[in-house]
Amino acid sequence: MRFKLRGAVVALACCLPVLAAGQGGPVGLADGAARAIASNPEVEARWHAFLASRQEQKVARGGFLPQVNLSAQAGAEWRRRPSVDDNDFDRHGATLSLSQMLYDGFATSSEVSRLGFVSLSRYYELLDAAENTALEAARAHIDVLRYRALADLAKDNYVQHRQVYDQIEQRVKAGVGRRVDLEQASGRLALAEANLLTESSNLHDVSARYQRVIGDVPQAAMGAGEVPADGLPASIDLALGAAYQGSPALAAAQENLRAAKAEARGKRAGFHPRLDLRASEQVGFDTDGIDGRHRDRVVEVVLSMNLFSGGSDSARVKQYAEQIGVAQELRDKSCRDLRQTLAIAYNDVGRLGEQLEYLDQHQLSIAKAREAYRRQFDIGQRTLLDLLDTENEYFESRRAYVNALHEREIAKARTLASMGGLLKALSLSRAELPTPEELGQDGEAIDVASACPATAPLPQRIDKQALLADARAARAPVTPVVVAPVRPDSSAAIDAALTERAQAWAAAWSARDVPAYLAFYGTGFAPEGGLSRAAWEANRRRLVGKPSPIRVEIENLQVARLGAEHAVTTFRQRYASGDYRDVVEKRLEWAREAGTWRIVGEVAR
After folding, report:
1. Computed from CA positions of residues 567, 568, 571, 573, in that sequence, does the dihedral angle turn out positive or negative?
2. Which of 1, 73, 367, 601 has its CA 20 to 30 A from that of 300?
3. Euclidean distance between CA atoms 118 and 125, whole angstroms
4. Alpha carbons 341 and 240: distance in angstroms, whole number
5. Helix (H) or strand (E) holding 65
6. Residue among 501, 493, 524 nearest 597 (CA)
7. Region at 430 (left for phi over 0; alpha for psi -120 to 50; beta for the rest)
8. Which helix (H) or strand (E) holds 573?
């Protein structure tokens, strides 16, 4: 088997790969995929399994041909019989026999048919392994480019924070700056250094994965990571239709189903007679002590049939009828898995494409604001906190854009791989590999109407005008509602108590004090996403109690009172640990239990 990159050939039939591209230039996306396929053990194993299945079919096909056997013997014979003189003599001879199966209840033909379908299944499994390997190679290539870009952003972010720190330090030493500003700048500089270390570590990890998948460490100069999008259909329904026709994984499951049906047909041979033509010729010398040459010739038709086997044949037929059900359910599962994978990947391509427009606008706008804030800070019109916040937002906006840009390329690769078209899109063609028609593929279609119809959830479209209209309607004057008076402590006292509780909750999390953290959640707490309380608590114990340092900060905390015993706090949560950081909008719903405010609902956006 070979995979050919236009102008070069990558041989997979041997263990040593022949690289498809020149060694001197940058390794592109297709070059890396070719290298990965050429050296991937799973692809090699699938290739040998395919070759073995073809030979296995030849073994079964031998049952249609005659069996010819030759035997010869020579030796001495001694006879001792009552009332007969003892007799000693030498004898020798030879026997040539031929046996031809005439009818076996279609057992042989069913077995040959079954193994043909098995060979087709191995063929499609080979193609699926190649598609998946190409996908992993594309993902590894794109991730190296992504994290190199993120590492560059982290370096620039560190330089900017270092320059601000040096500027503030000079002001403090000159007596015109505040010590608290220097502490603030020092903290942000430490965060920038941590971000730089994190991105450097991530780059190392994806480089190691690249080496595992491709076989070499990434070059300093790598080709672009853009996946050709010419093969992407215009709609998800068209994509599903193409996947049902081109997915090797689904085709392999279909051939396994056909193999199970052929095997079930073959098991009915036990109810049929077997008819064989047999011919033999035996030549002997001095047989039975009689001198001379003896010749026996036999031509016969032999019929044999089992009349009773204890019900084994009937049970065997039923057994393999159930195996058909197993193969069909696995085929349907493969179809549903394919539909889900493709629907998600296809939607990601469109969603990330739209996001890139907004993320690009975001980073451009923040870049302008950043420069304006820097000039205003120099003349005293902006605080240091304003400057540092803008610098951090600029860094995060560029990170978001880089991540979305590369995630979209990976989504395109996932979509093409699900459709069985990634190799074609990368201009990698199969050579010295038989076509499905040459292997006996008769084009039997998959009954997708019963397996999984080619329909998928429609992308969620957001009507922004309707959202604004609803917001304006919500702010329209309404008839005042008379409510019962509440206790005096339900106003300022509640606000202060909940603010203190929220800050204490964040402090317990930052201190990795798991018992104290879990004590903030009341008996009526319902985890988000339908998780059970036990599963949620086990997960939180693992995350809150992780060994690396954790920092949780709360900003812009607001309290909304729902009554004397219920309230909601909303705030911006900044989370940072040794291996992860994020910023989310958090909503905590509180209820008073035995005089203590406890969390009964938690939502992060």
Report:
1. positive
2. 73
3. 10
4. 10
5. none
6. 501
7. beta
8. strand 566-577
Task: For 163-198, write each residue's pLDDT tens digit.
Answer: 999 998 998 888 777 888 899 999 999 999 999 999
Identify the residue whose tokens are 């498809």.
Answer: 20
Instruction: Return the H-helix or E-strand segment holding 307.
Output: none
Average pLDDT of the residues in 220-237: 86
The owner of tokens 């969603």 is 351
328 Cβ contact list (under 8 Å, min separation 6): 257, 260
CA triple 421-426-429, angle to 5 deg: 75
- Report the run of H or E that residue 297 belongs to, with start and end: strand 293-304
Angle at 305 between CA 299 and CA 311, to 5 degrees: 165
Length of the chain equals 605
DSSP state of 287: G
Res. 94: pLDDT tops 50? yes
Cα distance between residue 262 and residue 251, in whole Å: 17
> Which amino acid belongs to residue 52?
A
Contact 587, 202 (CB under 8 A): no
Return the pLDDT at 489.
52
Amino acid 535: pLDDT: 83
Establish whether domains 2-54+111-253+321-451 and 488-604 are of one fold.
Answer: no
CATH domain 488-604 topology: Nuclear Transport Factor 2; Chain: A, (3.10.450)
Q: Which pLDDT does position 450 carry in this prediction?
A: 67
Q: Tell me how far apart the alpha carbons of residues 255 and 272 are, in angstroms, rounded to a whole number.
A: 27
In the three-class reduction of DSSP (H, G, I as helix; E, B as strand; rest coil), residue 298 is classed as strand
Residue 604 has pLDDT above 50, yes or no: yes
Give the torsion sign (CA, 285, 291, 292, 296).
Answer: negative
Q: What percent of the chain has pLDDT over 70?
A: 90
CATH of domain 2-54+111-253+321-451: 1.20.1600.10
- The owner of tokens 């370096």 is 155
Owner of token pair 């992407």:
232
Instruction: For residue 490, give the amino acid letter.
Output: S
Euclidean distance between CA atoms 501 and 571, whole angstroms: 13
Domain locations in the chain as residue ranges = 2-54+111-253+321-451, 488-604
Over range 330-359, report the average pLDDT.
93
Outline where 92-216 has alpha helix (H): 107-174, 179-214
| Rounded CA separation 343/237 (Å) | 9
187, two tokens: 């903290």
Name every residue whose Cβ is closer than 8 Å to that of residue 193 and which is 6 or more positions away in sequence.
158
Q: What are phi and psi of 3, to 5 degrees?
A: -115, 125
Report the pLDDT averaged over residues 395-421: 94
Query: Tokens 């540092």 belong to which residue?
Result: 388
Tokens at 487, concatenated: 């206790």
Residues 6+ apart with CB under 8 A from 186: 165
The whole-angstrom separation of Cα 595 and Cα 589 is 16
| Cα–Cα dist 32/142, whole Å | 11
How confident is the model at residue 84, as a pLDDT? Answer: 63
